[in-house]
Amino acid sequence: MDDSTMNILYEIDWDLISEIATYYFLFGLIFLAGVLHYGFKDPDEKADIASNLGVVVMTIIAFWPYNLICMVLSWPVWLMPVGDLFRRHK
Fold this sequence. Notes:
With 90 residues, the protein is mainly α.
């Protein structure tokens, strides 16, 4: 391998990385707004969120894909038999 091949292997597209990071952060802020909106409706969760607001904000923005997957998989619809799903919506 010559030097020109080595330079191509280690070239990093910083514009792409910054664009991905920007969108990741923006989606995290949108998810944070939704979580805070629905979290402050419940009085018990409101006190818990208010006491640890910094941790909640950092955790939601940093780990929003994991939190979104956990939220979707925690819906009770995943544990219902298929027959009950169709009977419920008639």
